[in-house]
Amino acid sequence: MASISERRVPELLVPAEGRPRFRSDRASGLNESVIREMTRLAIQHNAVNLAQGYPDFPAPEILKRAAIEAIEADINQYSITWGAKPFRDAIAAKYKRHYQLEFDPEREITVVCGATEGMIATLTAITNPGDELVVFEPFYENYGPDSVLCGCTRKLVSLRPPDWSFDREELRRAFSSRTKAIILNSPNNPTGRVFNREELACIAGLCQEFDVLAVTDEIYEHILYDGAQHIPIMNLPGMRHRTVIVNSLSKTYSVTGWRVGWVLASPDLTDSIRKVHDFLTVGAAHPLQIAGVTALAQPDQYYTDLAAKYAERRDALLSILDQVGFRCFRPQGAYYIMADISNFGFSNGTAFAMHLVEHVGIAAVPGSCFFAKSTFGDQIIRFCFPKKPETLEAAANALRKLQE
Ligand code: GLN
Known about the structure:
Elements: H1 25-28, H2 34-45, E1 48-49, H3 61-72, H4 85-99, E2 109-112, H5 114-126, E3 132-137, H6 143-150, E4 153-158, H7 168-174, E5 179-185, H8 197-209, E6 213-217, E7 243-248, E8 261-264, H9 267-281, H10 286-296, H11 300-324, E9 327-329, E10 336-340, H12 349-360, E11 362-363, E12 365-366, E13 380-384, H13 389-399
Parallel strand pairs: 1-11, 3-4, 3-5, 5-6, 6-7
Antiparallel strand pairs: 2-8, 7-8, 9-10, 10-13, 12-13
Helix pairs in contact: 3-10, 4-10, 5-6, 5-9, 11-13
Bound molecules: glutamine (GLN).
Glutamine binds next to helix 2.
């Protein structure tokens, strides 16, 4: 799939014929991230950016102060590669408090540069080229490149609209003796689906039957609506040592640019993950890990308020999208809305997203970048809503142009 905007390629990299000498097979297997490209197009066209999922409102004051204080206290050198001890202790306390899960900070916690690094470090540590990964479709865009970089094959299992549930037989057929892991992202980006206990039990059963790990991306754990509950699959019977949890400060504390995340796994897995992490990045920003201690100590009210604010933003965007003619899938969690565009008569979501960013002043993500097998994404685009009321207001005004 080609990138959606045209750009010049330095001449040195363009071979007279065949593959460029200085491009690895791995790099050749990658496409530019459509999500991040849409942000650049939003800037270029001065459009309201509802594409890449990050807040445009300030991070909590208390966290900014904690980060500044850590820098002023001269916590400015490397931390231990797998994370500053106070932050690992805070992570252990968080999981005990929210999920009654216990982790040994010395042997089971690795602090990484965001969930993105957590995922690639984990997959690099646990897979060999040729292994298979089970991935639900639609999927967060990065899981494709993650598989390519590890030389793994993805086995895609459809989440079926309108409720984005999966067929148990289809899931079973995706598992084989070559399967090493299933990637699980709940609350889910892009669909907003939150897996329930029965679904998780089905996945856990297959993991045990086929001797497979669950690698979970749980970064939207606190962004839940309408009574939805997040259950870490690690808490299901038989899954404590068969699950790797990947998470970060980014979404819960509105600090996506800090790049501070963590990976939780039993000691043998952590041992491999820590080595890969060390040689990839050495470590996450030390003062920001120290500020993370303050983040994880927030009272329950913080999380209640977070979810309530996001529910308001979700409802505001759902209402405007509905008014101007989209058919929306109502998310149970995370901060994205998948919207069907068939009322607008465009041949596909990419053409529609280009029209939106160039002529309507809204950046969104074409659904196709979350699908590899099904063509369902061709008539879908994804909007995000971690935005100030005035941004959503500006988005509403722009989107009304679609009614003209
Ligand atoms: N998770 C965000 C999204 O889907 C983006 C994350 C990123 O770009 N690293 O938009």
